[in-house]
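Protein modeling request. Please complete all fields; requests missing the sequence field cannot be processed.
Requester role: graduate student
Desired output: 3D structure, token encoding
Chains: 1
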Amino acid sequence: MLVTAPLVMTSTTALPARVDPVEPGRLRSLIAGSTQPYQGYAESVGSLGVPDLPNLGDVTSLLNGTTRVRAWYGSPQRWRFDVLTAGGERDVYRTADGEYVWDYGANLLTRFVGEPPLRLPRAGDLLPPELARRVLQAAPDDPVEALPPRRVAGLAAVGLRMRPADPQTSIAHVDIWADPVTGLPLQVELTARGATRPVLVSRFVEITIGAPPDDVLTPDRPPGSGLAMIAAPDVAAALGTFGRARMPARLAGRDAQPLSLVGLPGLGFPGPAGPGRSGAGPYGVGVYGAGLSAFVALPLPRDAGGSALDAARKAGASTVELPGGSGQLLEIPPLTLLVVRSVGARRTYLLAGLVDPAVLERAAAELSVLPRSDR
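Delivered output (375 residues):
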């Protein structure tokens, strides 16, 4: 069901913000722990210029343009967000019995069964509350300082700037403005090292703090619509069956981390934590390191591998010579991508993270000499 409401485009600086200051450390704790219910309309604008990689069009669109989302949040187990496009909308619901997706164009309600250990980013991950919490949780001890207050979606918000202490992350600072009472994040700006302007901005254009109506959070199947039930999609489903490569337990001096700890390593977002869910199962995706300089490594199917190499070259990637092959290195601050071709193993890997290129080059060198391990 299409839910509409007036969209009041409120400038963040149209009116002066008068609000009592909040000590940055206390504000950080408020933001990181906030589960304040709300309903609102948000826009995120990415200007990274990430090339179209095989089967990752939905991800690159989040980082390359404007994403418009209407959201209702009741609790961590009960929420909804609608992605609004020129062609319609796609609604994602979280309920007590799992996730549902309503596709307006296809007239189809789909229920996802199970929880993926690692999934690709989606529009809901860029909503200010979710993005702010992920960043702060990924770097819980990094220093913060106060920013001048500003008005966001008509509310006076207090701000903080987090400067990552990790020298290997490519993020210069993250600015967050939030409601001073509840800690609900209202605007987030992410700036890369060397950049003078944010490369990613997510903000509410309109917001109401308080619990949304219960019926809005309940999936509705209109008469005559279709119903489907499928396994919850993960990274493997998006990219196709992986070449069955056994990912190492350690790369570039970093251990594979449990998926429940994954923050913003470049490509993956974790599903709910579960026993035995490491960052590098015997086959599949490897997540290495911790915090903002974690990175993802995954083997690509043969057809996707060739396409990824071609896309990186066309985007201006530089060639990296490796002990067992070569790679295409693409720096799109703060994101670094490296597509690795191992000659001996006849395998292609994709590495991605908010990291210094030297980190991925070291990981690529190690992957290039791994023996083939699909049997």
